[in-house]
Amino acid sequence: TTGIELAYEESEERRYVWNTTDAQRLINLGDPVNGDRQGERAVTRSVDTRTDTVAAYVNDQVDLNEQWKLVAGIRGERFRARSDLKKYELPDGFPADTTEPVTPNSQTLWSPRAGVIFQPTPAQSYYFSYGTSFNPSAETVSVNARWTSRRPSKQ
Q1: Which tens digits make up the pLDDT trace of 77-118?
Q2: How far apart are CA 98 and CA 84, in angstroms?
Q3: Contacts for 113 with CB less than 8 Å, ≥ 6 apart
Q4: What three-state secondary structure class fits 11?
């Protein structure tokens, strides 16, 4: 079996900040007070992120005999992410946004897999396998510059 995957993802993040007093900043999540919040709200930044993924994979099965089969495969993936950070000028009394822009990120990832199938009868089979996968996502690269060296999450 062979195949390709082409993917495009967009992520929009808008961050808000409130200019409340210190006593009003903390919210007890176990007993939140619902109602109007004191102070004003303002947009502090926006981050628009775009990602492209191009991947190809190949899998094959070899029958050793009627009971034993081997399965193997590999997937190669190219992941590219770009983010645009826009900071907004905040009125007096609002805390400053210290977010740094994210540099474009591009990675090539390889995901191997292998397995053994034991089929003692036509009605039953047992499958033992090993494999890896990755989950690159626009959210993981759009936070700020501290995250640019992070690898996609490995499954």
Answers
A1: 998 988 888 999 888 888 888 888 877 888 888 999 999 999
A2: 15
A3: 59, 71, 72, 73, 74, 75, 129, 130, 131, 132
A4: strand
